[in-house]
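TICKET #2291
ISSUE: user wants both folds in one file
ATTACHMENT 1:
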Amino acid sequence: MLRDVTISRAIIESYFHDLLSNLELDVAIVGAGPSGMVAAYYLAKGGAKVAIFEKKLSIGGGIWGGAMGFNKIVVQEDAREILDEFGIRYEEFEKGYYVADAIEVASTIASKTVKAGVKIFNMIEVEDLVVKDGKVSGIVINWTPVHMTGLHVDPLTVESKFVVDSTGHGAQVTQYLLKRGLIKNIPGEGPMWADQGEKLTVENTKEVFPGLYVTGMAANAVSGAPRMGPIFGGMFLSGRKAAKEILSKLKV
């Protein structure tokens, strides 16, 4: 006979085991969109202890809807090897333009990322950063419903050697440094320009404050570069670049 309390205990005990096991990390990634998950995948494959914290119920960021709800995305030649890495199917539309199913992309990247050893905590809002001796050293977390309802509930802290801001257009995590006066300006994204947006997404993926990296749309928002629309190669390449740089610093 099934016991309701046993079901509840199984969920509660296993969840809090995961949470306790991820209070100290090599890398805490904020935002489970394409760049965040790709970064986490390569970090985990490289031996880092990494978890993703996503404020929404669902993960995948803006992949699911493709463009205007047409659930297809485009990836350029430079990033095609990442589709191959994840085993995602695609078709060549014209030379250098590859079309993939948005649902397959989101679900496959999510699955491969979790199976690589990454723990994803959804419905958790990162409400601040831990900064010690001039370096980002962790994140401050609370339940998303607490923020939505405006309740005064104190947060908890996760320590990490690096934090990655993969929160998209708003660069939510880096905004906390601006709020504290630790950085001077976040210009936000410029108007859409796919070619430059894709290029600069990768170029602007970097450590913007000791211990804090930006990826994907957050990288362009912090640098004032153009947005790029429903082409995702730059997102994937951005995540991989951040992972490689962080892994090299962890090894040092």
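ATTACHMENT 2:
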Amino acid sequence: MSQFVQRFTQDAIVGEPEVVEDRLDVRDVAELPAWRRLKDAVESFRALQTENGSIPDRSAHPAASRHLATILPAVAELAPHFPHDAAYLAALHRDFTQWEAQGFGVPDFLDSLNAFQPQQHRVDGLGHLVVFPMVTQNGSSSRLVEAVLVEVIWPEFIAELEAGDYGNTLFVALRFVDFTPGYDTNSAVLFPETVAMREIPAFTWGAIFQDREAARYRRVVRAAAEITKLELPDEAAAMLDDQELTERVFVMWDIIHDRSHMRGDLPFDPFMIKQRMPFFLYSLEELRCDLTAFRESVRLDRELSARPDEELSDADRAIRDHARLVQYAVVFDRIFRFAITGSRVRNYDGLGGQLLFAWMHQHDVLHWTDTQLTIDWAEVPDVIIALSDQINELYRRSIDRPKSAHWLAAYEMLTRTLTPHPASRWARGLPEETLAGMPKGYTDAVLDDEFPLSMFYEALNKKMAAVIASTAGITGISSPDDSAPAEEAAA
């Protein structure tokens, strides 16, 4: 089989996968017996693994080898349908074989990870077969083998957007086709840093499953709008009935969001993944990037709408029209899904949703009156951009501040809009020994639920909890009709 893989690698067409003849659509690949065998064998293999991905029980090694004897031929049989991934699939064979030869210790798939370069093939509808031992964010925290069939989402207007002012060569937009249990969860990302490997390389791509984001958005917003009696603008309502449209909207949102993490007047590393800090700092960073996507969409909408339609290209029109929808998506996903999804333990995305809702309410563009939610859409853009300006100014000032002073300033900014927990040590004022001590003392003083849900959100959460829970594992293919959950929630 190794000879077959090597020969296939040499003969593969690289760079123009769309011209390969006799290559099945990835959705058709999902129906092939080889994929079913691969998926079943991977699921059986996973049952033998421990949290770090290894199989320390030697008595389980014969079973692992038997499953591998199914996995590798199945990958080789499917490989001709993915000629653009030939080098990766060949390296995958070598990594699996070496892992087995070394006694199924902690897996190391660095070589195959380095060979997998999906950002080089951003072709709409192109498929990938992805197999790695990995964790899945918001899914499995164990480094188990996953097998995933995915499809690229890359419409022409996104290619035009990325080639212009919003260059993001690392960004890959994907759609689920089929997957093993680690992705039958809330995980909506495929990141190289989650793969088991011996050392950390320079990462060259990051992928987001826009179909999952779009599908759960449609289900949650439909239910929330019915519960709150919110009358959606026609454009926003159209998204709830059109999965592919909503996917494209999320691609536009995410490509701008993703590049925003390292752009602007910021500290060297605003997200500081490897540093422990109060969770509300992560909340502000994620919200900052979402609000950047919002304000850029407002700018694109206004600039392109000001030009005569006949002067615009088809891509310009698509950018303009999707830019309007990005604004709805940011608002609704943040205030309806983010705010009440997940536990109340250092939930930084939840806090960002709470902040956006409260900011809009206190600036009189969002109203909860007579048990009905209304939004003054004409005034919304400038109000939300003002919040974006406030966060950007906090970041700009932080360049000249010590870390602890930045943390205190960020907390003070939040408390101008949100009410902290009555027992908050931060709200009462940190004692001098904490202020004079190491940053760890500051972080330890933050409550798990430093900013509890408001009464509005406590009530909404009770009505929406089942709907949000129902979105685990959802995809654009698996949930074409989202009317039932909304009806159940309203009842």
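RESOLUTION: both attachments delivered.
EXTRA DETAIL ON ATTACHMENT 2: Residues 2-204 form one domain.
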